[in-house]
Specification:
The protein is an all-alpha fold. 70% of the residues lie in helices and 0% in strands. The chain is globular and about 55 Å long.
Length: 189
């Protein structure tokens, strides 16, 4: 691959659409780390992440001819949506969500905003990955992906109120972990 092709998604796409294996490999290498991170936000088992990524790339390459390039970042966004959808399908197929509805007065409680400034990002990431499957999925969809409770409900086949209550519980669990971490690692002067 020339550096011009390696830097240009549109040229790379044209080569892939003509079944150029080097271009396919380039696309894979360019995006695998990012898509692994996306997938790992939802699925904690490394073997399962690998399987979902494999399914994602099969879908990406099999449907690439229908992709319409819309400028810088559109390819990455499209690939991310495919990977996210494959992760959600995997979760729905293999995880057993134990959603618990909160009472109206519990949902209306304000979320506690813990101090995260002194916590390294890998520790926060670890706390998120430790959440139960349902909480982690809804937290990531809402906080990281910016999905609404209506979208999450449609994606997961649940009620909007269930999505909101599980997000509330996920935030409460994370706040507790963060507060405990801050207490444990605070330096007394």
């Amino acid at each position: 691959m020339t550096s011009t092709v390696a830097d240009n998604d549109e040229l790379l796409l044209d080569l892939i659409k003509n079944n150029n294996e080097r271009a396919m490999h380039e696309l894979y290498c360019r995006h695998i780390r990012y898509l692994t991170a996306v997938c790992s936000r939802y699925i904690t088992n490394d073997d399962d992440v690998h399987d979902v990524l494999q399914d994602s790339f099969i879908k990406i390459f099999s449907s690439i001819n229908s992709f319409q390039y819309k400028g810088n970042g559109s390819l990455k966004g499209w690939m991310t949506r495919i990977t996210l959808n494959e992760a959600i399908k995997f979760i729905k197929r293999t995880c057993h969500f134990n959603f618990i509805e909160l009472k109206k007065e519990e949902i209306d409680l304000p979320d506690e905003e813990p101090d995260t400034e002194s916590i390294p990002p890998p520790v926060i990431y670890k706390f998120i990955r430790e959440l139960p499957d349902g909480y982690r999925t809804i937290f990531n969809l809402y906080v990281i992906e910016g999905r609404s409770h209506k979208e999450i409900a449609r994606l997961l086949g649940i009620k909007e109120g269930t999505s909101a209550s599980q997000l509330h519980r996920a935030k409460a669990i994370l706040a507790n972990k963060i507060n405990n971490y801050n207490k444990l690692y605070s330096i007394s002067i």
